[in-house]
From TrEMBL:
Superkingdom of source: Bacteria
SUPFAM superfamilies named in the record: P-loop containing nucleoside triphosphate hydrolases
Keyword ATP-binding: yes
Family: Belongs to the adenylate kinase family.
Protein's gene: adk
Keywords noted in UniProt: ATP-binding, Cytoplasm, Kinase, Nucleotide biosynthesis, Nucleotide-binding, Transferase
Chief location: cytoplasm
Assembly notes: Monomer.
UniProt enzyme class: transferase
Name assigned to this protein: Adenylate kinase
UniProt: AMP binding residues: T32, R37, E58, L59, V60, G86, F87, P88, R89, Q93, R134, R146
Amino acid sequence: MINIVLFGKPGAGKGTQAEFLKEKYNLIHLSTGDIFRFNMKNDTALGKEAKGYIDNGELVPDSVTIKMLQDEVEKNMDSKGFLFDGFPRTIPQANALDEFLKTKNWEVTATIALEADDNVLVERILERGKTSGRVDDQDAEKIRNRYEEYNEKTAPLMDFYRAQNKFHAVNGIGSIAEITERLSAVIDTL
């Protein structure tokens, strides 16, 4: 069982790399963004609850996010492992993930951060914004605000996992193949 948490600022290539890694290592890719969209689109009870918070301009509470994630894990109990993308984002979420995985006699195997210069990432996202249709991908100031939020909330997780000897940083600049190779080099040592 390999359970990997993939970190990186918006535009770092988490989604792109997750596609390669899930195939190569036969992992289930759990993207919280995708899980949220699925639940809201399909009007599940959790989707309705999350939509209520979002419609009021509020953050969806950890309890709802964690329950959605747990439901996805429960659907894939016979998998070889999971690739968590976009979760956890805070230390309380990391603790909740650890507690949930313990109920299955599993643990987070490693966390891997795709690291890249903010200016490079802003350019990547602005380029993506030309086709993504996402308004927040088309405004450099909004992108930089997302990075500030990442630094405040998610970056402390690096120390959290570093203290457990589960943190690995990988250079996220280069060709897709080069970055996949760097990530694989870390995963192959686990």
